[in-house]
Write a structure and sequence with these properties.
two-stranded antiparallel sheet, single chain, mainly alpha, 62% helix, 490 residues
């Protein structure tokens, strides 16, 4: 399992869904759903129902879908496959028998066999029905052999069950005995003495789905004060703790001040790409909502610098580890300045995977992370208000000479005004318009009237500080182009 794929359900969702469906079908067939509540079988049944009803539309933008996908991804394929194989072996080793006639005298299963079936979380009815429908007429030697198989299988089932129960807590499938308040949980956490991680995970999951403001504030402060090292994962619940805190702390990213945004990107952008993909969309949303190009470019640069100094370890699945900032700096050297060359990016990433003995499954995530940084740095990460895109500065939706050559009606005047407001480059706009005027007989009608109207629009947008595009010179007795610096605002 490579956590770099955790947020990309298009790659793994259907396979995971099929495994869970198959496991649920086998368990239902063998045990007739006669198992204990909060058992591994119970969890598989709940996940199976939820997954069958879930779609992946906008999963990269929806925090709750993203979180649920992260939880489902952590249902280990190897454990699922192991339990499926065990159930298939049980099915082959038992028989499908009709239930005994009503009132028939039958020998009950031995106490030892009952205890073995209890390890599989069957309830009292399930134990009796499984015994009589699958085993009742087997001879003693066959029952003993089957008992050994069930005992061996129960160990595999127990491993899956432990994970399922922890994951189920995060998505509110059940409530453990221990129930936390924020104050109680934080107190135990600060003393490194959490009494019940089951209760803690349920509390955090409930806070996430309830959009609890106080818990989100605590999570933000915890992220800022800590440096999670997810490469060290002695306990599965620590990974779950990291994922839920990350989702809680980043969910309101749009509303944080710039310093907080920078610090979070600086500490967790790689983790966000692996575990909480809506964060990338939040960053792009912030950039898209900037009122002017200047502000947009400033924020792009601010976020890019935060990524450049990120010290997160990229990999935790074997091989060599590299921090994100070194991965980026090495690429900038490797690219020789041609940073947006897609072939160079692909070649560099393949080389890093080979040299560092990483899994090839990391390729897409690394490509996305590197591209995110490079386009942030280049200022073209989004199509900013129709002006900037990954291809660079987009052409205007009109040409100045055509505006001047055609009738400058109110509709066109509004279009020009809106463009100048978003573009927010007064000197560049002035230069472009003046150059276009110089190529036309602008002193004569109808060009002069249109040029004067364009000059009025320019001043309405940028104010008198930058001066008009045209001004009337008393000395020369005529209109002149403002192409030698802001003059005489007449």
């Amino acid at each position: 399992m490579f956590l770099q794929n955790i947020d990309n359900p298009n790659k793994w969702w259907n396979n995971k869904k099929q495994l869970i469906q198959k496991l649920n079908g086998l368990a239902t067939e063998l045990f007739a759903s006669e198992w204990r509540e909060n058992s591994g079988w119970d969890e598989i049944s709940i996940f199976n129902e939820e997954i069958s009803q879930m779609d992946l539309v906008n999963v990269e933008k929806d925090w709750e879908k993203s979180f649920y996908c992260s939880v489902v991804y952590l249902i280990d394929d190897v454990l699922l496959t192991g339990v499926i194989s065990g159930l298939e072996e049980l099915k082959r080793s038992t028989r499908q028998l009709p239930p005994p006639p009503v009132g028939a005298l039958v020998n009950p299963p031995s106490e030892d066999f009952v205890n073995i079936l209890k390890d599989l979380d069957l309830n009292a009815d399930g134990i009796v029905d499984f015994y009589w429908s699958k085993i009742g007429d087997l001879d003693a030697a066959a029952v003993d052999a089957l008992s050994e198989k069930i005992q061996s299988f129960s160990l595999v089932y127990e491993d899956l069950k432990k994970r399922l129960l922890l994951l189920g807590l995060l998505v509110l499938h059940f409530h453990p005995e221990k129930r936390y308040t924020l104050e109680e949980f934080v107190g135990e956490l600060e003393r490194s003495d959490v009494k019940s991680w089951s209760g803690a995970l349920r509390f955090l999951g409930q806070s996430f789905y309830g959009n609890d403001g106080s818990v989100k504030t605590w999570a933000l402060n915890f992220l800022l004060a800590s440096q999670f090292d997810r490469t060290i994962d002695p306990e599965f619940f620590q990974l779950l703790f990291f994922i839920i805190v990350l989702h809680l702390g980043l969910r309101d990213f749009t509303y944080y001040d710039n310093d907080t945004k920078q610090r979070l990107i600086n500490k967790y952008i790689w983790s966000g790409f692996c575990f909480a993909r809506p964060w990338e969309q939040e960053i792009k949303k912030i950039l898209a909502e900037q009122p002017f190009v200047d502000y947009y470019m400033y924020n792009c640069g601010m976020f890019a610098r935060a990524v450049e100094d990120n010290n997160e370890l990229i990999y935790n699945g074997g091989g060599k580890n590299i921090v994100l900032k070194d991965f980026i700096r090495q690429y900038l050297i490797y690219s020789g300045g041609d940073t947006l060359d897609g072939l160079k990016q692909v070649t560099y990433i393949k080389k890093q995977i080979f040299d560092n003995q990483w899994s090839v499954d990391m390729k897409d995530r690394l490509q996305e992370m590197l591209g995110f940084y490079l386009h942030l740095k280049n200022g073209d990460i989004i199509d900013y208000k129709g002006i900037l895109s990954e291809e660079g500065v987009k052409p205007r939706p009109f040409e100045w000479d055509k505006i001047l050559s055609d009738n400058l009606n109110e509709g066109k005047a509004t279009m020009v005004k809106d463009y100048l407001m978003v573009f927010n480059r007064p000197f560049t706009a002035q230069m472009e318009i003046v150059i276009s005027l110089m190529a036309l007989p602008w002193r004569s009608e109808p060009y002069l009237s249109r040029a004067l109207r364009l000059s009025e629009i320019y001043e309405e947008v940028y104010g008198p500080v930058y001066g008009p595009l045209l001004y009337y010179s008393e000395k020369d007795g005529g209109w002149k182009l403002n192409n030698d610096g802001p003059p005489k605002n007449l």
